[in-house]
Amino acid sequence: MKFFVDTAEIDQIAELNDLGMVDGVTTNPSLIMKSGRDILEVTKEIAALVDGPVSAEVVATEAAEMIAEGRKLAKIAENITVKVPLTWAGLQTCKTLSSEGTMVNVTLCFSANQALLAAKAGATFISPFVGRLDDINIDGMDLINDIRTIYDNYAFDTEILVASIRTVNHVLESALIGADVITAPPAVIKKLADHPLTDAGLAQFMADWAKTGQNIL
Ligand code: E4P
């Protein structure tokens, strides 16, 4: 399963990238706003830093303007993935840009039928938002299961990019279901290494080692 980092903060991306944990990056207008950076500049920097796909989202709502924005974003670097919302205009943009060879990430997906449309429109990635479904008391992981079944039934190439990840359990369940990619905030990716028994075991080893009076170096 690939790990994308869901942020536009260069330092945080670089830190995880150095550890080999970054297969790609996703941004959205809210994350660009939080970074305080110019979208074209920060996207260019991220794309130069990371080898994998870097999602940059269009902000127009009509297809012609979305396509124009997408073409401009795609010119930033070869690894740019144009992110479009799951609307009919977004699907039209997806079809046009994917036919031109541009990677497209269809975002704001909340139903399996929406995911089916995105695959038929040639999406490279579909981004179902599990956390926002959990927020309204609908199990987001049920959606991932349904999309996995549908995509496997018809051998669609579109990759399931689980988005709106809030917990380490979202990551675990995505892996168990067989999602292709997760995109998570850096803090969630870092938490994947945590376990209280690891901490307790290490403390015990350190205490016992101190009693030996030995050094390795
Ligand atoms: C990524 O592509 C999404 O924009 C992001 O995961 C949304 O996360 P949120 O629901 O926590 O804002």
UniProtKB/TrEMBL annotation:
Subcellular location as annotated: Cytoplasm
Species of the source: Planktotalea frisia
Keywords associated with the record: Cytoplasm, Pentose shunt, Schiff base, Transferase
Cited SUPFAM superfamilies: Aldolase (SSF51569)
One cellular component (GO) term of this entry: cytoplasm
Family note: Belongs to the transaldolase family. Type 3B subfamily.
Gene that produces this protein: tal
Catalytic activities: D-sedoheptulose 7-phosphate + D-glyceraldehyde 3-phosphate = D-erythrose 4-phosphate + beta-D-fructose 6-phosphate
The keyword Transferase is assigned to this record: yes
Protein name (Swiss-Prot/TrEMBL): Probable transaldolase
Pathway entry: Carbohydrate degradation; pentose phosphate pathway; D-glyceraldehyde 3-phosphate and beta-D-fructose 6-phosphate from D-ribose 5-phosphate and D-xylulose 5-phosphate (non-oxidative stage): step 2/3
Keyword Isomerase: no
